[in-house]
Each structure stands twice: as C-alpha cells, then as structure tokens.
Design brief:
alpha+beta; 206 residues; binds zinc ion; globular
C-alpha cells in the first residue's frame, strides 16, 4: 500500500519536472526575443543578459512556489480587548500583467476587522507579495488578497484597495504616463455597513 502511493507520487513528480524547462531553454528563448527586438544577442553587453533575465523571472514569479495562506497560519488570540480595525497602508509592491508580462507598480492598503484573532502586521504584506509575484491582472490580485484574509482569519470584514500603474499602458500602447488604476474589494462589514466602509476608506486616504 505504502509502496503503491509512493510510486504514484514519484510518477507525478517526474511529470511535473518535465513541464519545467531547463535554464538553457529559457536563455535560448531570451536570445530569440532579443533578435526579435532587433538586437544581436552575441553583442558583448548582451552576452550574459539571457542568464540574468531567466534568474529575474524566477524572482518576479516566485509567488507560484508558495501558498500565501501560509502567512496567516500563526495567529494571536490575546488582543487585549482590541476590536477595532487593523490597517496596513500604502504597501509598495510590484507585479507583472498577464497580458504583456509588463511591470505593474503600485501600492496596496489592506484592512480587516478582527473577531478573536489577529496576525503579525507584516503578514498582510507577505500575502500581498505572494499573489503579486505572479502574472496578474489588478482586479484578480485585489480579490485574491481580500479573499485569502477573509477565508483564513475569518474576520468581520476585509478591505483591500490597490492603486497601480501598468507599464503596458504607460510605456506602450496609448503611452499615457502618470495614470494609475484603482481597484477595491470589500467583504463583510466593510461591504454591508456604510459607517465601517466610510471609516476604512477615510483611514486609507480615499
Ligand atoms: Zn498588460
């Protein structure tokens, strides 16, 4: 029985491994992109670029290797009677859009209304980065962060507001620098109760 389940795991691991390209394949793809852009990949300044780009993309997308919910596993129940909202404001982040693989640079404000447990405040930023370090669309990133906190902390409410600028719009296409996009996801009391909503939005500066 144990041997049987082990062999299935091994087979799955082997199949999983096949889907992941080796670094040389990634570097070759970057050389192709360089030629496509009008460059000579053999030019001195570009010789090590494919290696750097491969490493950089591993880092930009390191969120795929984690489940952001793990950052919310350790909670504190002794909150000294504190039952007001907790807000982490203007957390800088970067991500990449899934349509152009172009940078998304922005800031997020994350709030929740605890019931009986809270997390270390830096964990909210870790959840954000866990989802941001993937290919994203801003609307989904906002929703994923809010829902992860909602499901794992079971608070009375969650509010996530993200303001970001998209390089695919500022540096290409309509080329409109300086514009940013705002998205929000409100759950629980922040969605249902106008006073809670006004309080959180004004603390966030909106
Ligand atoms: Zn885009």
């Amino acid at each position: 029985m144990a041997d049987h389940s082990l062999s299935i795991e091994d087979a799955l691991a082997a199949r999983e491994a096949q889907k992941i390209p080796v670094p040389e394949e990634v570097q070759e793809a970057v050389r192709t992109l360089l030629r496509w852009s009008g460059e000579d990949p053999e030019r001195e300044g570009l010789v090590d670029t494919p290696k750097r780009v491969a490493r950089a993309w591993k880092e930009y997308c390191e969120g795929y290797a984690e489940n952001p919910a793990m950052h919310l596993a350790r909670t504190f129940e002794e909150v000294g009677g504190y039952d007001e909202l907790v807000l982490l404001k203007d957390i800088p982040f970067h991500s990449h859009c899934e349509h152009h693989m172009a940078p998304i640079i922005g800031k997020a404000s994350i709030a929740y209304m605890p019931t009986d447990k809270v997390v270390g405040i830096s964990k909210l930023a870790r959840v954000l980065h866990g989802f941001a370090r993937r290919l994203q669309v801003q609307e989904r990133l906002t929703a994923e962060v809010a829902e992860c906190i909602w499901e794992n902390l079971k608070p009375d409410g969650v509010a996530v507001v993200i303001e970001a600028s998209h390089s695919c719009m500022t540096a290409r296409g309509v080329r409109t620098p300086g514009v940013s996009m705002t998205t929000s996801r409100l759950l629980g009391c922040f969605l249902e109760d106008a006073r809670s909503r006004e309080e959180v939005m004004s603390l966030m500066g909106y």
